Amino acid sequence: MVEVKNFVQGETGEWEVIIGLEVHAQVASQSKLFSGASAKFGGEPNSQVSLVDAGMPGMLPVINQYCVEQAVRTGLALGAEINLVSIFDRKNYFYPDLPQGYQISQYSDPIVGRGDLLVEVDSGYTRKIGITRLHLEQDAGKSMHDQHPNKTFVDLNRSGIALMEIVTEPDLRSAEEAGAFMAKLRAILRYVGTCDGNMEEGSMRCDANVSVRRPGEPYGTRCEIKNLNSIRFLMRAIDYESGRQVRLIEAGGSIDQETRLFNPDLGETKSMRSKEDSHDYRYFPDPDLLPLRLDSDWVAGLRERLPELPDAKAERFVKHYELTEYDAGVLTSETERATYFEEVAKGRDSKQVANWVIGELLGRLNREGISIERSKVGAAGFGKLLDLISQGVVSNSLAKKVLDEMFSTGEEAAVIVERKGFSQVSDEKQIEKYVQKVLDENLEKVEEFKNGKDKLLGFFVGQVMKLTGGKANPQMVNKILRDLLSK
Amino acid sequence: MGAKNSLAGLTVVEIRDGLRNGDFTVGELVDDHIHAAERAKNLNGYITETPDLAKDMASKSDDKISRQELGSLEGVPVAVKDLFCTKGIRTTAASKILDNFVPTYESRVTENLWGAGAVLMGKANMDEFAMGSSNITSAYGPAINPWKRESDGDDLAPGGSSGGSAALVSAGVVPVAIGTDTGGSIRQPAAFCGVVGVKPTYGRCSRWGTIAFASSLDQAGPITRSVHDAAIVLEAMSGHDRRDTTSVDRPVPQFEKFLSQSIKGLKVGIPKEYLSDSLPTEINKLWGDGGQWFKESGAELVDISLPHTKYALPSYYIVAPAEASSNLARYDGVKYGMRVSDKSLEQQYSKTRGSGFGPEVKRRIMIGTYVLSAGYYDAYYIHAQKVRRLILEDFNSAFKKVDIILTPTTPNESFGLRDKLDDPVAMYLNDIFTVPASMAGLPAISVPCGLSGTGLPLGLQLIGPAFEESRLFQFGEKLERAAEFSKQPSSYVG
């Protein structure tokens, strides 16, 4: 790994940006962390609330084993230590959407300890980011301020939903690195299926701790930017905030430790509360819950049954399919993508498949904002299209048009080729006629060619293809042209 | 005061026999207990009475009896401390903040009782949120001890926090009341009212649906007029509950079987730390009598030491308020219960909680908030938890030498309702003998064993090893038999 320096230039010299993240990932679970209520997104307000979630008197939390399992699997996927004994604490504060008056979280003894994540940054280097811990906690409900002119409504559907809070070391050095970290973390969570990673629905969000310092100096004072719900916002917020801090310090000011909010419309962060106003959460072990004890054999079993993770898969793709690291990285960044590629590549030229998946299919999907599993072009159909190319039935360029059609209608490649008459002309006599026609119409150019202007071959090929509507077999056109021109 | 031929005043055992023999119906039994409650109104023992529901349950019970389907508490009238949530019946915790609260669910303990055939007579008065040792903190006015000093007619405290429960049983209004004990809230009022009270091992009864005071200490238990009755009721209340992860999954013994078991050759521990110069002579003497009675039954007395006893009360008053300060945060006027509206959220919280909670509850919330605060947590809460472990270790090593421990239940007899109001610490000292077993999670029973010089009941406490409630009944029955405590209070209505 190369030590990459990511300094930003201020008026008075270089600055280093220090970033640590706290990611909240909702556990992909049917029910909540401490109650049997549904954890589905989008229900009618207060339709998914048990007596426990509403903080009714005398109600007690009971830990959801499935959520514990998902936290452990996530910890294993992050290569982190699993703590066989962990403790649930109460974090005490008053808010209308916090029915118990405390959030059950893990403070001193989290379920998962130190781990690492390798992050490939687009500008072409890799950085190892330390994971400090992962702990389980319950989400709060939602205050709705827009339902009534002077009342606040509370929706408790989210109250009690299981979250994994994943905390990094202050190892990130730029918005780009932070963005890449989130993308990689999201990919891993989706690989192991412990979080759907859906940031729009709030299944994943993060807080960013940002500070700046002169290279080589101790950490500066940090500000925490709360509740960033997209990778783009995270990156913009970091860029704005680090710029703000540099300008402030260079102007002779100093940074106050505070919590800030990012306003995506203005692209700015704004102070929410200062350190002095910060809560004293009075953490203490929740007496309603015994310490969580895990069996080491059970953990070992989960480790064994963990699916292949992105890094391992990319390595395998490079070795087995002889792909470039870049292509392997793109294809393994999502588990569905990797599965799709492998299905298509079965019995086919893997490099050609990689080129077509990355260059053609992903491009179209990205443009339309569709995920690969929702694509109308399934792996089997896509494979058949590639077969038509390698069998010489359709040319590369026409195949792209066929893909366009398949992409919007879901029709089979062969059907489209048939209907549109895209079949390649491979009849030698037929092609010879077209070639002769082109040569007859361009006698001057034929003369030039014969006088040594080799490049004109491409021109003749183009003319023939134009004449045949792209259907002529390009290899044959080439061969026949050379034959006739050399006569 | 007692009405002639009233069925009120029967014990659980007598009711069981009477119903089996067809001497009376549950309907008649319940009617007599409704009338008894009317005669005992001045005791303020109930916050809410449920006579209509009781008659309903009685008629269902009579149907069951006609089909020979008798539960272990079939037809037995029960008063339930107003800390247990009862479905469709107002449950206040004796606090204004829950004055209008009607649960949509039934606590596990009361569900067990109804499953065994018991009949709910009403919700018993108590100290607000179970915080108090006199019943004076109830938002509905204190319950009154049916006992009076021989020298004056002053109203005396029934003890607390399960004071209403103890007063109702003592006065013969019900044969059984259910209480909760956090630091002595069953045993101390039982001692003050001359009845039997059991705090089982922590985890024996489910806490599901019981309004929490201090979660790591709270346990439900029975208050009855005999050790035998307590054994029957505790068995019916107990049992594992998946909804309370601190409840323990182990079989509930048939406690009745142990009542008649001999204690010959068994060892009774007498902890020297419970003896102090300030202990009234008559209590000290009663304690000695208790030991003597055990000796006469063939047991051996063994002097033991529980060296950390003196730290139990101070650490209790850190742990319990700390948990309470968090447990009571949910009463914020947002979802249920009282709300004093204000445009400002902070003002609404402060007005709601300011007027909804009484002074003792506020005091404990403030103590608890303080000891959990950053910078104080280690010095107070963590320290108190360490002390708690030491207390448990004291008991564990004592139980290697003895089978049971005998102490007085309280350091004094009942006091006037208006006494000790200005000195919370004096009030807290009431729990000095009951708190150690609570901190260690151990089972304990208070058995009425004698009268003070002023004619008020005094109790002795037996503490057993974890999940050995059987021993409490085995030894408690001997104590009860020897003490021959049979006097009834002046306000007896049975």
Secondary-structure map:
The complex is a heterodimer of chains A (487) and B (494).
Chain A: E1 7-9, E2 14-26, H1 65-77, E3 85-86, E4 89-92, E5 102-105, E6 115-121, E7 125-138, E8 142-148, E9 151-155, E10 162-168, H2 175-192, E11 204-213, E12 223-228, H3 231-250, E13 258-263, E14 268-274, E15 284-285, E16 292-293, H4 296-304, H5 310-321, H6 325-332, H7 335-345, H8 350-368, H9 379-390, H10 396-409, H11 413-420, H12 428-441, H13 443-450, H14 456-467, H15 474-485
Parallel strand pairs in A: 12-13
Antiparallel strand pairs in A: 1-2, 2-10, 2-11, 3-16, 4-5, 4-15, 6-7, 7-10, 8-9, 11-12, 13-14
Helix pairs in contact in A: 2-3, 5-6, 7-9, 9-10, 12-14, 12-15, 14-15
Chain B: H1 12-21, H2 26-39, E1 46-49, H3 51-66, E2 77-81, H4 108-115, E3 119-124, H5 163-170, E4 176-181, H6 187-193, E5 196-199, E6 219-224, H7 227-237, E7 267-271, H8 281-296, E8 300-304, H9 309-327, H10 345-356, H11 359-372, H12 377-398, E9 404-408, H13 424-428, H14 435-440, E10 444-451, E11 457-463, H15 469-483
Parallel strand pairs in B: 2-3, 2-4, 7-8, 7-9
Antiparallel strand pairs in B: 1-3, 4-6, 5-6, 5-10, 9-11, 10-11
